[in-house]
Amino acid sequence: MVELAKPLSDRFKLDALIDDLADDLKALREGRISVRDVYKFQMFGYWAAIWVHLNRIGEFKRNNPWRDLVKEARKQ
Known about the structure:
Blueprint: H1 8-29, H2 35-57, H3 67-75
């Protein structure tokens, strides 16, 4: 349930997120997305986050190899 105290723009973002999640779950049930694909995506996110974290705390100052991928995904 959407809280009414949130700004109107945040409620619309939440509604869009819920709709996207519902579409993804439907695709998973219909077999268009396999459980293996979901697992591989989650593992990529897990290890990418660890790389970014270690790069920050180690002060290695290496460029994020996934920056372009993330920027492109945000456009979608």
